[in-house]
Every structure is written in C-alpha cells, then in structure tokens.
Design goal:
With 192 residues, the chain is an all-alpha fold. The chain is built from seven helices and two strands; from the N terminus they run αααβααβαα. The chain has a two-stranded antiparallel sheet with strand order 1-2.
C-alpha cells in the first residue's frame, strides 16, 4: 500500500492523505491487509474497485473489464466538438451522461452512489492532471485531446507532460472540477 501511495503521489503530486485514503479503501474492498500485496489485476474487482459505465472500459455484462477500449477512448475524444483540440467540463459531462445511458441500455444496473462518485472523480482526474487554464474556474480548463488519448491508449503520462509544481488537493482542486462535470452531465442527460 505504501508503494502504491508513494508512486501515485510522486507521479502526480496529488495530496498524499487523499491518495493514502484511496489506497486504503482499495485494499479494504479487496480484503487485503495494509501490509499485504496486490497486483493490478486484483483491482479489477467488479463493484468493489471497478465499476460499470466506465468511460474507457467495458461493462461486466459485456465481458472483460480490465482492458482499455480504444474505440471508447475515441468516443471520449469525439464528445468534444471536432473544431476544439481539447476536452473540458462540458465534453466530459457529456461523456459521463452518454456512458451512463449506454450502460443502462446494455442492461447494467445504475451505478450505486459510491461508485457513481468514483466514476465522476475518475473523470475529473482528466482535467486535474492535464487541464490547462484557471483552476479557480473549472469550466476554463482545457485538457489537450492528444494528451488524453496518449494517457488512455498507451496508459502512460503523455510525452512532455509535467506534474503540478503544487500539491493538488481534492477539496480545492478536484471537487470544483467534479461539480462542474456533474452540472454538465445533468444538462446533457435529457438530451441523450
């Protein structure tokens, strides 16, 4: 758990206390002691550490849920207008609304509150890590499409990307982004 926590903190500069809580909850959900070990495949535990309506992975009802689906990444990219070279809270809100609708159309149940919150937080990480603009105005943040595509398709940080020089907090940085994504998701839901 300490290795995962320090690895995420060192790579992203996200608040260590938040990341520690995240890793502790993952270990707990998997029934692994804090001194135990896991591998990445262990994190593919449906409705524990993995959920339906992912923006990049299949629902459990569709089969294998571990592998990023390039066509789903492309759908995420395409949710932003073609004349824009970035994603923002508007496009990511559309992605969340679209994926929830697609998931339920497949026959998957709606996400329980805790997993819905996780899905929104994961979507918000796109702008937290790659967003350029004024963090005080989440709607101004722009995550370059090419960076997002590399991050998901190659599962690496994009070439030239640099972590934030300041510690990124949940309350001050991620929560406002997620709040705007929720607003846009709510806007798009009746239109899908």
């Amino acid at each position: 758990m300490e290795e995962i926590t320090s690895g995420i903190v060192n790579a992203t500069n996200i608040d260590p206390d938040f990341i520690l809580g995240f890793t502790q909850s993952a270990f707990s959900a998997l029934g692994v002691s804090v001194n135990g070990t896991i591998n990445l495949v262990d994190l593919d535990a449906h409705d524990e550490t993995e959920h339906d309506a992912s923006i990049t992975r299949l629902d459990l009802i569709q089969g294998e849920t571990l592998t990023v689906q390039p066509s789903m990444v492309q759908d995420l990219i395409n949710d932003a207008p073609k004349d824009l070279d970035y994603l923002n809270t508007t496009s990511i809100g559309l992605t969340r609304a679209r994926r929830n609708a697609e998931s339920q159309a497949l026959g998957s149940p709606p996400l329980p509150a805790g997993l819905a919150s996780n899905a929104l937080g994961e979507a918000g990480l796109i702008l937290l890590l790659f967003g350029q603009g004024n963090f005080a105005d989440p709607d101004s943040l722009q995550a370059p499409k090419w960076m997002v595509q590399q991050w998901f398709d190659w599962e690496v940080f994009p070439l030239g990307w640099q972590k934030s020089p300041t510690v990124l907090s949940v309350a001050n940085d991620l929560d406002p982004i997620v709040g705007q994504i929720v607003s846009w998701q709510t806007y798009w839901e009746p239109l899908i």
